[in-house]
Specification:
The chain is an alpha/beta fold. The protein contains 15 helices and 35 strands. A 9-stranded mixed β-sheet has the order 3-1-4-5-12-11-10-7-8, with helices on one face. Strand 18 and strand 19 form a beta hairpin.
Length: 680
């Protein structure tokens, strides 16, 4: 079956398990046989993020830097999606605060928690009907976490449990008035005594930069934006866990054993800067819902990527040319070192070969060996055999790089044609060698239907050559996006239709595309150029100095057998592996599987969770186990009882239930169930 048919079948067969056992459900008496956990008011494992006008996409699909104002909305969505917490978004610039937006089809609570991050000053009419928010919390028992300075409304402040007197901008650079975390509480258990801002606690972003590599040096924090604090006092029912200049900025209010209201102030960019703030938000979610399940596999994750294998650019570009690697080279310098250490890497290949002689895109692996204009022997068939060898030995994961050919979608029209222009003419313009944005024509979008064709053809080319269905390709090409243009705007939706599920820094789905702001696995990207011996030519340089090639003459470039910017030393050197031996090496297939996992609380009595692994997006889990962190609040765990244990797919694990435990789910697609049982 072709990959598209497989995807359609998986979508038709996908089942959604309806969440039951929610707040207000009936409980059984203690003498009944199921156990004390039946008395739990189990909240739905789903949150509702409420915003005002931060999201600018009229389709409510793309969450990215072009269509989100500010950083806080993207940061919150990033945390929820990477952790694996299901969420919906209520945007009050378009929608209203209506009670049914908080409920399911049976008019029962649809969410365990609301994340309130809507500025009351930006709301009007029924979008500012805060009585509905109060009703959702107080009548339906949906917990709430309010963020930043978005509580300057009497009703919202009353819910939080503070008396607001006004706001003030605080300069973070003067190191005087800090956000001081105190209080012995579940939420601040790992953060007590910390004061922010603090350079020692700051970490650089884990999101790749324009060169597709994750920044690894810390460096200075730079100038810090001022933060808005609220001058307020706490009501008697509130516990203060953090202050700025004596003003409560982190508080918790227990409305009941199950319903909590939490307010976390501080800087709007602190979640991406300080892991400790992410920890406070995470503990707040657990405290608000009683439990939480989290994907922590990206924290120490590392993806080693090689781009461009199979690309015709190597044979025709003045400023990026070198021989394609042979099977023997791939085995000696990549496959064997990886196999010895039990590791794997991603090969972002280019299966479509733009052939100037035939003026068409061909199968790269069928191109007859030849000597190119620079004097390099090009044997793409040998490269193909090496890729297959690495795949069979389990050390290569195959994905399409840009999409299919690494070339512009239209190589014929002006300013082309590219095919038969002199090598120092149009063929030398690096803007032709981009695919999912028409960079050569002022970074305009590739026509949607053609982009869909390109994505699908790249997927099919990988399937036909290697027998695997790829899930990753280029969606948000940072280097190709230009201010004031719309190139790339619709790539996520089209990639999702084609069957892709992830990109370097993106989640791609039918529900939305998310350009993550943090927390993705560290990535390092090199090229097959790094498998060639250094030539000593001026055009054979390092990546940081590649710009010098733009100043070289045609004669100089033609005289260099190797031209390009190197990123790694891979020949007779295993430091590229050994220096990262403590990392968890993974690929995009595993990344995709975690991001597309579906988690819900179980139906019926008691407490449990159902994990659904889609047959297309979660294919990685077919024969491999998955790991999740289950966290329980103190009160929730007490209600489960001291003898509670974990049962996975009907088998007792022998694991004693604690505040935090690593759950390993055996390989297999479809549904897996975790039950929390008690000894009778």
């Amino acid at each position: 079956m072709k990959p598209f048919g497989s995807l359609l079948l998986s979508l038709l067969c996908f089942t959604v398990i309806i969440a039951c056992g929610r707040v207000g459900s009936q409980t059984k008496s203690k003498d009944q046989s199921i156990g004390v956990q039946d008395h739990l008011a189990v909240k739905p494992f789903r949150v509702l993020v409420i915003i005002d006008n931060q999201w600018k996409d009229p389709l409510s699909y793309n969450i990215d830097s072009r269509r989100v104002e500010g950083e806080e909305f993207t940061d919150v969505v990033t945390m929820l999606k990477i952790w694996g917490i299901p969420f919906d978004v209520l945007r009050l610039d378009e929608q209203r605060l209506q009670i049914n937006r908080f409920l399911d089809g049976e008019a029962k609570p649809n969410y365990g928690c609301v994340i309130w991050m809507a500025d009351p000053n930006n709301l009007e009419g029924y979008s500012a009907h805060f009585e509905t928010l109060k009703r959702a919390v107080e009548e339906y028992g949906i917990s709430m976490i309010a963020l930043f300075d978005n509580i300057m409304s009497g009703d919202v402040a009353e819910l939080v449990g503070v008396d607001c007197k006004g706001t003030q901008r605080i300069d973070q650079n003067n190191n005087v008035e800090k956000f001081a975390i105190s209080g012995d509480h579940f939420i601040t258990r790992d953060a007590e005594g910390i004061a922010l801002p603090n350079h020692e606690l700051w970490v650089p972003s884990s999101i790749t930069s324009g060169d597709f590599n994750t920044p690894t040096t810390k460096g200075p924090m730079g100038y810090l934006d001022s933060i808005s604090i609220i001058h307020c006092s706490a009501l008697e029912s509130v516990e203060v866990l953090g202050t700025v200049a004596g003003n409560p900025q982190l508080v918790v209010r227990d409305l009941s054993d199950e319903t909590k209201v939490i307010w976390i102030g501080g800087g709007k960019d602190w979640y991406r800067q300080y892991p400790v703030m992410r920890g406070i938000f995470r503990k707040s979610l657990v405290y608000a819902m009683g439990y939480g399940v989290f994907n922590d596999n990206f924290e120490n994750g590392f993806i080693f990527i090689m781009d461009d294998v199979g690309c015709s650019e190597h044979a025709y570009s003045l400023r990026w040319h070198y021989p394609t690697p042979s099977k023997e080279t791939l085995i000696k310098y990549l496959i064997e070192p990886l196999e010895e250490r039990g590791l794997m890497m991603v090969q972002n290949i280019t299966p479509g070969y733009a052939n100037p002689k035939t003026r068409m895109i061909e199968n790269a692996w069928d191109v007859e060996p030849f000597t190119d204009i620079f004097g390099n022997w090009q044997d793409y068939g040998s490269t193909y055999e090496g890729l297959k060898e690495g795949l069979e030995r389990g050390v290569f994961e195959i994905q399409p790089h840009r999409a299919w050919s690494h070339m512009n979608w239209d190589l014929d029209s002006p300013p082309g044609p590219w095919w038969d222009d002199p090598i120092d003419g149009e063929m030398s313009d690096v803007d032709w060698y981009n695919e999912v944005v028409d960079v050569r024509r002022d970074a305009v979008p590739v026509p949607s239907n053609d982009l869909l064709f390109i994505y699908k053809t790249g997927i099919d080319a990988v399937w036909e050559a290697f027998g695997v269905v790829p899930l990753s390709a280029e969606v948000r090409p940072v280097a190709e996006l230009k201010d004031g243009t719309h190139g790339g705007d619709d790539n996520g939706r089209i990639a999702a239709i084609a069957g892709l599920g992830v990109s370097r820094e993106c989640y791609v789905g039918f529900d939305r595309t998310i350009e993550f702001s943090m927390m993705m696995p560290e990535q390092f990207t090199c090229h097959d150029l790094d498998l060639t011996p250094k030539s000593g030519a001026l055009a054979d340089t390092i990546d940081e100095d590649w710009g010098v090639l733009l100043e070289m003459t045609t004669e100089q470039l033609l005289g260099s057998k190797i031209a390009g910017g190197r990123r790694a030393s891979l020949l007779n050197n295993t430091d590229w592996i050994d220096s990262r031996k403590d990392k968890y090496w993974m690929g995009f297939n595993e990344t995709c599987a975690y991001l597309h996992s579906s988690i819900k609380e179980t139906s019926g009595n008691g407490f449990g969770l159902v994990f659904n692994y889609d047959t297309h997006y979660c294919k990685y889990f077919e024969n491999k186990s998955s790991r999740w962190t289950l966290e329980l609040s103190d009160s929730f765990r007490e209600k489960l009882g001291s003898g509670a244990s974990v049962i996975i797919d009907g088998r007792k694990t022998g694991m004693e239930l604690g505040p935090e435990q690593l759950i390993e789910i055996p390989g297999g697609l479809g549904s897996h169930k975790i039950d929390i049982g008690t000894k009778q």
